[in-house]
Amino acid sequence: YKPLVAVVGRPNVGKSTLFNAVVKKRISIVEDIPGVTRDRIYFDAEWLGQEFTMIDTGGIEFVDQDNHFFTSMRYQAELAIREADVIIYVVDGKTGIQPQDEEIAHILRSCGKPVILAVNKIDSVEQEINIYEFYNLGLGDPIGISAVNLMNLGDLLDEVLKYI
Ligand code: GDP
Ligand code: MG
User: Fold this and answer.
1) What residue owns the CA closest to ligand 1's atom 6?
2) What is the CATH code of the structural domain delimited by 4-161?
3) Which range is the signal sequence, renumbered to this chain (predicted)?
4) Which atom of ligand 1 has the smallest separation from the CA of 149?
């Protein structure tokens, strides 16, 4: 049994980019157009000798009765809450808080699982000021990261290890 770490968040915040950065293999396709890709969603990763399985919930799709694929952030979040040992909730430091972020935060606040709030796209020290508004989501201290520049990913994973 390896602990399951779920990456949750609305489209385009950088979940796949973060996932790829952590697993150190470019196995998912990063796309600007949400819903276009068929991402690889599970991968085994390791940090400081601790192994865990990471899941990119943004890649989870559902099939309706007409065989159409669709994604649902609510289902993705609920799946993560049910299955995961730790949830990394990714938000976008460039766009700030969006209504969908509030919806997911509302679900996660009462979920009973550890939630780590990662503010992505903090690509430079000057942008760190953008993390503070995310205190309003009521999920504790936000951690600023840049999945593209690989900034603060160690701090994020250190936080994950506290719970697994
Ligand atoms: P997802 O829909 O949450 O999986 O988001 P993606 O990982 O596909 O990324 C969406 C877009 O955000 C892509 O154009 C990425 O290059 C961009 N992106 C992801 N991480 C960062 C980051 O740390 N900084 C910046 N500036 N852009 C990022
Ligand atoms: Mg993605």
Assistant:
1) 14
2) 3.40.50.300
3) none
4) 23
